[in-house]
């Protein structure tokens, strides 16, 4: 079985540095904005040239002031204007760069976010049943934000910093004693080596922080999603304790990460201090010997500050970039996962108005050591109905999932009009099937939007007609906001029966040639069930219908009924034929009839 695992919780076993790989993967997104990116880089380089020119100007001003005491205010005035202009140009170029590149940053974040959501929708049902929503959300948020950080700091901090370092080193080497350039280059090399070494070492703490943080977030969101269950059993303290345990682990790793950051910063500060001190000692000696002017001393000091201040920030930037790469690691791990179910090359589109369904010798298991279906074969002729009954866990709902091709069978085939569902496009397959699931989950939106979700773009009249057919109109009219009522997250503001009727209205609105009812009346009381059965019959008319039923009273009119027991078909026939067999179906019927005829319990 291919791609049996799509779990988010396991990173690749072989840890290796993927910094360049991740940067390379961002290049296609950057190239979509290549004009803006190049313009922004050019502006920053211009800003750096303005910055490098400032110390030379300061040298001239100081030298003039030293030599021409009497004309001090008149002679350097022009230089002072140029000095102010260079300062302004430096700031202006940087702000223009931000204006130009803002659209690039947020545009790339938007594209990656869309790609992520699209990819998540393409992954299999197995993946989404196993995922941890909180951890997944956290990973995605950190990943998309890290893309912005990586672009911003890589292109507009590291690259310009190295441009500035190259310019300053060249000036020091050509204009002054070679020792200045040697000390600067050696200090730079030691600084970068120390930064890279320590930052690479401390990344394990950052990865651990991300994992612990995601685990804590997952725990918190899971407890909130199950708010009612927590309250039912009074387990608030247990949930808080589990959350605190996760945060305690995160706190320990975060403390180590901060300690390692202090080690990094302390080493960087020491190297800069030694380099600056050595250079200034040489410069002071040169001035005392008359080989350098006071202006030269000021210029060298200014260049050293320009050289080492960006380097001090470079260490922080490199840490941020490594953190960004760590955050992107899990985001790209999601994007790299292949869907378990994919369209075959050359898959055809289904365009069938009155399809038939065939299951031929189907074997299926969710896990290799737990088989669910054994040699299941049946046919539903076009426009006919088939019901499936059996005990919980017998494999009834699995039939609907296989028909939708949420999973592929291990043996046999599932066909629509003789077309194996493996050979058709998933979009066209699912477009001709409507379903009313056992557990209806609604969007946190209005009733109107949740019904219209069955066929986006439907008119108001079509939505209202579908609601009426699903016996929803009187309920909706009783609400203060009517169709504009917000149903709450996952539809928690509605009862089970109300949610089920919304699902039926969706199916009616979609108007598909195949309909699956997966225990569609399981959440309805007897009165609502009788009312809704007429709607179900209307939906089923002239459609190929698969009904997975718990209440046998709802499927007595089905053209055929099959009984599943432990994944095998043990009986098949009409309602009357199965009763005459006096087998498993007759036993289930008698049990349900006895339950329905029992007197209500006394108060």
What would a concise description of this structure say?
The protein is of the alpha/beta class and 603 residues long. Helix content is 63%, strand content 10%.
The secondary-structure element order is HHHHHHHHHEEEHEEHEHHHHEHEEEHH
Strand order of the biggest β-sheet: 6-7-8-3-9-10
The rounded Rg comes to 35 Å
* DSSP summary, beta strand count: 10
Shape: elongated
CATH T-level topology of the largest domain: ABC transporter transmembrane region fold
Overall number of domains: 3
What is the top-level CATH class of the largest domain? Mainly Alpha
Largest sheet: 6 strands, mixed
Low-confidence stretches: 1-16, 598-603
How many distinct helices? 18
Mean pLDDT: 80
Terminal Cα span: 55 Å
CATH superfamily of the largest domain: ABC transporter type 1, transmembrane domain
Structural class: alpha/beta
Instruction: Give the % helix.
Output: 55-70%
Portion in strands: 5-15%
The CATH architecture of the largest domain comes to Up-down Bundle
